[in-house]
Amino acid sequence: MTDIIVVGGGASGLMAAAAAASGGAEVAVLEQNDRTGRKILATGNGRCNYTNEYQDASCYHSQNAAFPWGILQQFDAGRTVDFFQELGIYPKSRNGYLYPNSDQASAILEVLMMECSRMHVEFYREQKCTEILPQKTGFLVKTNAGKLRARRVILATGSKASAIAGSDGSGYALARSLGHPLTPIFPALVQLRCREDFYKCISGVRVRGQVSIFADNACIAKDQGEIQLTNYGISGIPVFQVSAAAAEALYGGKAVTAVLDFMPGMGWEEFLHFLDVRIKARPEKTLEEFFIGLFPKKLCDLWIRLCRLERGQSVSTLSKAQWNHIGRLIRQFETKVAETNPFKQAQVCRGGVDTRSVDPTTLESRLVKGLYFAGELLDVDGLCGGYNLQWAWSSGYVAGREAAHA
Ligand SMILES: Cc1cc2nc3c(=O)[nH]c(=O)nc-3n(C[C@H](O)[C@H](O)[C@H](O)COP(=O)(O)OP(=O)(O)OC[C@H]3O[C@@H](n4cnc5c(N)ncnc54)[C@H](O)[C@@H]3O)c2cc1C
After folding, report:
1. Which of 62, 88, 208, 228 is most buried, taking the most CB atoms under 10 A from its CB?
2. Strand partners of residue 31
3. Residue 243 near residue 252, CB atoms below 8 Å
């Protein structure tokens, strides 16, 4: 019988295996794919944004709000950087977002695998765990290829986000079969699909702005940055950041609207004055010419069309009401959100194993002794910017350390 079986060879599972093995335990990892850590390779556009220098409890979300931070403090971003630096990863900061200096996600996976190998962690690849049966002592772990026994089990199977092979959400069923309730699961860090039919005309536009999500007319989330307009709706990091809130509201049957402000940071009166100065400086310009150098052309064409104006119309001929209409489209561009893109296009999931059924210090199940949880399988998700991997590292480390010492 092995001391510990880690189910899932992703970010949290590999960290859990390394931590448990360095605590003196005999560890085996079960991975359903033919290779471990596939998702790690896709992170950060192949560069792996493995943590962030800025850390705060508000960067993480769970229905059990205090839960993530208690774990993150046990193995924080500083310890994560030290851990990886010891394994060879020299960090590179981009505004606090940390990447390996080589800008290669494979580097993170390689050093984790080297560490597991140094600690004699055993790997069983192409073995999908199908059942976990608690026994008098330990567990019987069934896979598509056979049976294994272990004193303790760490479930680190990830979520059902992304199309990367292995993200099938099978861990949810395993957790449920052991009595663990799940909170509702939504795609998060994902694009939003909108109802209007004009998106094909503005597809490909990238523009700085603020996106605010309203559910039944109440603002529930907002963020700023580069918004990307696609042929079906809105994308980009600020949209990702608010997407889980939108998904939850849609799931609750609420009417969800995104309001885009393409000139955030300027008060309304200041903005009207800004337009006025610009009109007076060149009254001979057409509407089309007026916006050159201010906003992307495709977007301006849409605003002009929605205001039922002509591109060739002289700016000096527009009434105050017409300028107010254009101004409102620039500052409060409302778009109705129909749905998020599906799980396979999401980077993470909101929701998962209810953390109220898990010990907040050790990550051991409160229901099944010797069973531990790590990573995205739990109802914890972070902002875009290295926070989801930080959760994987922190929870993986704690689960591995605790399972080794139990
Ligand atoms: C495109 C993309 C880019 C991202 N970029 C970033 C980023 O730059 N920074 C960041 O912080 N986060 C990023 N994330 C999120 C981050 O990758 C995940 O939050 C993190 O990998 C979750 O780790 P995990 O160990 O919980 O799950 P996973 O990494 O998904 O690992 C779970 C493993 O378990 C295996 N498994 C599942 N079920 C079974 C089973 N029944 N039996 C055996 N094995 C099983 C799977 O095959 C998989 O290998 C990104 C995600 C995506 C999709």
Report:
1. 62
2. 125
3. no
Out of 34, 43, 154, give the residue to mutate to test ligand 1, the one with the largest number of ligand atoms within 8 Å of its CB.
43
181 and 210: one domain? no
Any idea what DSSP says for residue 341?
Answer: P
Phi-psi region of 233 (alpha: psi -120 to 50; beta: other; left: phi over 0): left
Distance 273 CA to ligand 1 centre (A): 49
Are 53 and 83 found together in one domain? yes
The answer on 332 and 239 residing in a single domain is yes
Q: At what angle do helices 320-331 and 268-281 cross, to 10 degrees?
A: 120
> What 3-state DSSP class applies to 176?
helix
Range of the domain at 224: 191-340
Query: In whole angstroms, what is the distance from residue 75 CA to residue 88 CA?
Result: 18
Determine the Cα–Cα distance for residues 178 and 169; give it in Å rounded to an integer.
15
Ligand 1 test: best mutation among 106, 347, 379, 393, most atoms within 8 Å of CB? 347
How far, in Å, is the centroid of ligand 1 from the Cα of 298?
Answer: 37
**Closest among 39, 271, 255, 21 to 123, alpha carbons compared:** 21
Q: Exposed, middle or buried: residue 292 (CB in 10 Å: 0-12, 13-18, 19+)?
A: exposed
User: 312 and 374, same structural domain?
Assistant: no
Per-residue pLDDT tens for 234-275?
A: 999 999 999 999 999 999 999 999 999 999 989 999 999 999
Q: Write the DSSP symbol of residue 233.
A: E
Compute, in angstroms, the gap from residue 134 CA to the centroid of ligand 1: 26
How far out from the chain centre does Cα 327 lie? 33
Closest ligand 1 atom to residue 389 Cα is 11
> How close is the Cα of 91 to the center of ligand 1, in Å?
21
Give the three-state DSSP class for 382: strand
How far does the centroid of ligand 1 lie from the alpha carbon of residue 193, in Å? 24
- Within 147-263, residue ranges assigned H as helices are 170-177, 199-202, 237-251
Confidence of residue 167 (pLDDT cuts 50, 70, 90): confident
Quick one: which of 245, 221, 195, 194 has its CA closest to 351?
Answer: 245
Same-domain pairing of 270 and 239: yes
Per-residue pLDDT reduced to its tens digit, 78-130: 999 999 999 999 999 999 999 999 999 999 999 999 999 999 999 999 999 99
Q: Please give the tally of structural domains in the chain.
A: 2
